Amino acid sequence: MIATAAGLVALGLLTGSLVGLVGVGGGVLYVPLLLAVGLSQLDAQATSLLAIVPGAVTATAVHARRGNVAWGPVTAIALGSLAGIAAGAATATSVPEAVLRRLFALLLVVAAARLLLGRRRLVDDLEPDCQ
Amino acid sequence: LAGRLRLSLASGFVAGLVGALLGVGGGVTLIPILVAAGVNERLAVGTSLAASSFVTSAGALTLAGHVDVTKALELGIPAAAAAVAGARVHWRFSEHGLRRALGVVLLGVAALLLAR
Predict the structure, then answer these.
(1) Contact of B6 with B14, CB cutoff 8 Å
(2) pTM for the complete prediction?
(3) What average pLDDT does this structure show over A31-43?
(4) Which residues of A touch B59 (CB under 8 A)?
């Protein structure tokens, strides 16, 4: 139990460093880590959502201070997301675990392709902000 | 303006759908959509993060019965602290190799999941 907790904290530190360094989202890393410690696909995904929140809020605070958040669109995106979340959650809880796992694997392939083939480095613009 | 509102609502729907279905933040969907819509990257990243904070919170609440709160916080809180440190040292690294390595790792994980 304690070993798992310490392991997750260490992996959290590692993942966060990668997110900060490379700029990829935590979700694609959290879900496999949570699968590795024994959660089901659905539980790993739901837990990943909560695990993303602290980093996303912290990073948002930094960006908002620099004026890099367009709050009008954020409000509209948040409103639009409610229907999407309801549909996504309903689908996630009703499809078989194996289907969910394959869909997630597909998402990983897309994320990997963007890392391997992408020419644009989205976090480059942030460098001066972080000094 | 009506067009922009529609785009924001629609991109929010997509971000919420993919986020809740697959357990990821909005960055995967929102940043490409915003950049394609002509938003500059800095604003796209900040806006995506703010929207993701909402989408992941609302998604976790919606799927609350499946959330392991302890494990989420054990991962998420150290990650938040480390991400700040990671962003600070970001400029020192040529992260090209790191991105490639991570891309290969994700492909490996995808293969493992598909083989299971």
Answers:
(1) no
(2) 0.87
(3) 95
(4) 46, 49, 85, 88-89
